[in-house]
Design goal:
The protein is α/β, with parallel strands linked by helices and about 240 residues long. The protein has six helices and ten strands, in the order H-E-H-H-E-H-E-H-E-E-H-E-E-E-E-E. The chain has an eight-stranded mixed sheet, sandwiched between helices. Strands 9-10 form a two-stranded antiparallel sheet. Strand 7 (about 215-220) and strand 8 (about 230) form a beta hairpin. The protein is globular.
């Protein structure tokens, strides 16, 4: 079912805030795909966030590469969202308008995945503000199958411990291949109907580590051998304990 654009509700607020052009979208080469895809498709929908103002985040090549990679897939959709300035955020709360994407102005909470690319630690609090505006519980333990998977990546997610309580998974390393493999897992789970959004029963997202030896693997140190790594199911709070 198509998701309604928030722009008709947002547009009357724009003349009252600073730099309203940053919320309009429609840039050259931006992509707006059909929400449901072709008949019979199982779409996986990503909201990609650079957790800073639009003018800071738009030049970021990492987000734009993922945006292109995902939108090249016929059964995947990616849109962008950025940090909302305090003046508009206050008005959005007053009028009940949630965090939105700049491509089709769809609510972030309607997507399957919210992928946040952290270039610096300063973006951590902006992610929390975006989650609050989106109506998504801040703590991962409080979310369920109706909420998007919150995925962290980027240079400042290499040590995800400071935000471990707020994200479902972290991608360590380059995400170009990881996002495609994760999209495939989510699509399969949705096709099988095992959960509305989550790839497995109860959904506990994998911690994805990219390295020369393994591009995308769900890995945790074993209890018996601290230096070794193995593939295991993981929980929202991190690695599961060894059996």
């Amino acid at each position: 079912m198509p998701v309604e654009s928030l722009f008709p509700r947002l547009e009357p607020l724009l003349p009252t805030v600073s730099k309203p052009i940053q919320y309009v979208g429609g840039e050259l080469n931006s992509t707006v795909k059909d929400w449901d895809g072709e008949p019979g498709d199982v779409m996986v929908r990503w909201a990609l966030m650079y957790p800073d103002a639009y003018e800071v985040g738009l030049p970021n090549q990492g987000v734009m590469i993922l945006y292109e990679v995902l939108n090249e897939q016929p059964r995947a959709l990616a849109e962008r969202t950025y940090a909302i300035w305090p003046d508009l955020a206050t008005k959005m709360r007053e009028h009940g308008i949630p965090q939105f994407t700049v491509d089709a102005h769809r609510p972030v909470a309607a997507f399957d995945v919210l992928g946040v690319s952290f270039s610096t630690e300063l973006g951590y609090t902006n992610m929390l503000e975006a989650l609050d505006l989106a109506g998504v519980p801040l703590h991962a333990k409080d979310r369920d199958e109706t909420h998007p998977i919150v995925l962290a990546g980027g240079h400042a997610a290499f040590n995800p411990e400071p935000i471990a309580d707020f994200v479902d998974a972290a991608v360590l390393g380059d995400g170009e291949q990881a996002v495609l493999e994760m999209t495939a897992v989510i699509r399969q789970a949705k096709a099988e109907g095992s959960a509305a959004r989550r790839p497995c029963c109860g959904w506990r997202a994998p911690a994805v580590s990219t390295s020369p030896a393994s591009t995308t693997s769900t890995t945790c140190p074993t209890a018996a051998s601290p230096g070794s790594r193995r593939t295991v199911p993981t929980s929202r709070s991190g690695c599961t304990s060894a059996p």
